[in-house]
Amino acid sequence: MDQTLLPVVIIVDDEIMQLRLMASLLSRSYMTLPISSAKEALRILDNMHMTGDLAQVKAVLLDVMMPEIDGLTLLEMIRERYPVKVPVIIVTALSLKGTILRAKKLGANDYIIKPFPAQELLDKLALLTEDSTPDLDP
Asked: Fewest CB atoms within 10 A around its CB: which of 59, 83, 109, 120?
């Protein structure tokens, strides 16, 4: 299938193996952009915003625990910077209720706790097609 016709999923995680795993998992249904830092993610998102391509982003998958800029701060920046509501799914090992509630307050569309079954990620991405703001259940 032509990758240019696939919806875009941006994966932001500082763990290279996690990036590769998620990119591989999603590669049949999505054009994936694996990014290893929040700063690089902002650069890519800014570029997509300037070129009008931001609306093609199906979702941004964000790890919480990253150096320099953590995933929740990046989520907050995404919500402040872009008028297009880019769907964001937090994908992290943190299962603390406070972290989940903060992610929801900042505008996360969903939350997945690592390690997760592959089908869970695929299902949550599919839900974004039906409803761009599914409820988070902490």
From this structure: 83
